[in-house]
Amino acid sequence: YMGKEMNGEATGGTLLGVDLTKEEDINSMRERMLPASAKDNYDEKLEMARIPNDKYPRGEPVELKAPGEDEPFIEKKIKRPGVFRRMLFCCPVKEEETQRKIFLHGRVEPANNVRNAISNQKYNVITFIPLVLYNQFKFFFNLFYLLITASQAIPQLKVGFLFTYVAPLMVVLTLTGIKEAYDDFQRYKKDKAANSHQYKVYKSNGSISLKKSSELKVGDIIEVKANERIPADLVILYTSEPSGTVFIRTDQLDGETDWKLRRAVRYTQHLVDGNPDMSPATVKGYLMSSPPSHDIYEYTGYFQLEEEGLQMAEGEKRNEPLNLENTLWCNTVIASGWAIACVVFTGKETRSSMNARDPRSKSGIFDLEINYMSKLLFFFMLVVSMVLVFFYGFHSGWYIQYFRYVLLLSSIIPISLRVNLDFAKAIFSIRINKDDEIKGAQTRNSGIPEELGRVSYLLSDKTGTLTKNEMYFKKLSLESAQYTEENIPEIQKILKKNCEKYVGPMKDIEERMGLAPPEPAAVINEESGSANSAHASFASAQPVSYTHL
Predict the structure, then answer these.
(1) Which residues contact 274 (CB under 8 A, 6 or more apart)?
(2) Within 10 A of 39 (CB to CB), how many other CB atoms are there?
(3) Residue 172 to residues 15, 298, 362: CA-CA distances in angstroms?
């Protein structure tokens, strides 16, 4: 915005060669710059450009950056560093990336080197012991026995063998550490399998190579097959369907089990279909993508075609806007067919990573209940110990006697309960993993398996969420009889008898209502497979409504 001033007052200005004082010029600029879906969103910005300079003083001009005439507009979201960050760092903090230009031959502007490896581990070699101890001693139950054990190092408070206090606590901590290490190792193996999975990568020279998921970078053109995990956030360039569509499952991302339709970029789909020797990586063009975001239901960008000698229809532009329908988010799965797509976000910049929470230690309701009851028992111990001191007498050193009574009564809170509880959780987890009646079940957290016993109600928006759309016959209840799995042969006989007796559906009901005369059944010639019947009619003579039945 270049304002023109006269006598200290703003008299007008130009934006991209348009006079901002004329309403019709502003409207024509909006029609030329913005796609239809974005016109309403930028009314406020256009109005802002027309505000006189008394609100935006000289030296702080309003700036609206627009692409070329053939390029759609993309909103630039700039996250500026906060006051705390500017005070903490001596040097200026680099602003986050706004737009990303990805050429199909692999070049990315600005350069991006975010690693695509996934890691769901809670611990590493350094943090394992500190975090496990913290997660255990944040509960009053374990902290109480740690203090009781430490008190036995003081000669005046010693009331028994030190081993009787140390051994149970060490058993609890050791067993908990083994469980946490095993769970974290299982997560490590799962991450390693996902990171080591190889995908086909198409090069601009026409060659094809294999690359691990953890080695993928922004700008790579990869092929994803049916039932394969999407390794990064992608924009679809080509699919196995001539229409350029593909169905995906997003249950691991948003919990929805229904299939969703996605579409390839129209230009790349048509170019590759029309030339068998061409691949999406050899197409001359680039993707202009919006910056990384946590919103899984929104994406903005456009594809710019730079192919020379390509015949375009009259009025047809060489760019195509992109939205959510052109994307494949990380951790979704292609339901059928295959697709070739361009990597736009990797690693921590993917939608799934930006919406994921850091791994945390979970505690069951039973653990919280035990912790609460142990606090009540501890308060009871303090009261009883004070009563005993009162009857003993408040002589010199009575407070030492008081603590000795507390130590003697500490068995009221049995540490063996904690040992039994941890052993029970480990056994529950092992048996769930090996149960033949629930094949495929896997205990991902051995610290809360008992929570399954507290489930009273299952709330579901549709039956497919629970049944995976696979239904099995259990019982059929009619007015006169009930049939179960054991009666399936009897049901088959009844169906066969009635199907052989009548031609077409519901003929017996039509006869009982007097709506149609009985028709002989069609006899099938086993050799020729043709129907021999004088009245082999499979349609009723007149339409009948059975709503009242």
Answers:
(1) none
(2) 15
(3) 72, 48, 17
Distance of CA 14 to the CA centre of its chain: 46
- The per-residue pLDDT of the chain, averaged, comes to 75
Angle, to 10 degrees, between the axis of helix 140-151 and the axis of helix 163-196? Answer: 140
**Residues near 244 by beta carbon (within 8 Å), at least 6 away in sequence:** 236, 238, 263, 264, 266, 269
Read off the pLDDT of residues 160-177 as tens digits, 9 standing for 90 and up: 788 888 888 888 888 888
Q: Which of 70, 78, 19, 76 has its CA nearest to residue 49?
A: 19
Catalytic residue among 254, 258, 461, 508: 461
Q: Is the dihedral of CA 208, 213, 214, 219 positive or negative?
A: positive
Query: Whole-angstrom Cα distance, residue 251 to residue 144?
Result: 44
Burial class (CB in 10 A: 0-12, 13-18, 19+), 474: exposed
pLDDT digits (tens, 9 = 90+) for 172-200: 888 888 888 888 898 899 899 999 999 99
Q: What is the pTM of this model?
A: 0.60
C-alpha to C-alpha distance for 190 and 185, rounded to whole angstroms: 9
> How far apart are the two ends of the chain, measured CA to CA in Å?
74
Confidence of residue 327 (pLDDT cuts 50, 70, 90): very high
Cβ–Cβ under 8 Å, residues 34 and 28: no
H-type alpha helices, 348-364: 351-355
Six token digits for residue 190 = 């799962």
- Nearest partner of 289 among 541, 538, 101, 123, judged by Cα: 101
Task: Tell me which of 54 and 267 has the higher pLDDT.
Answer: 267
- Is 40 one of the annotated active-site residues of the chain? no
Q: What is the pLDDT of residues 195-230, one digit of tens each?
A: 999 999 998 888 889 999 999 999 899 999 988 899
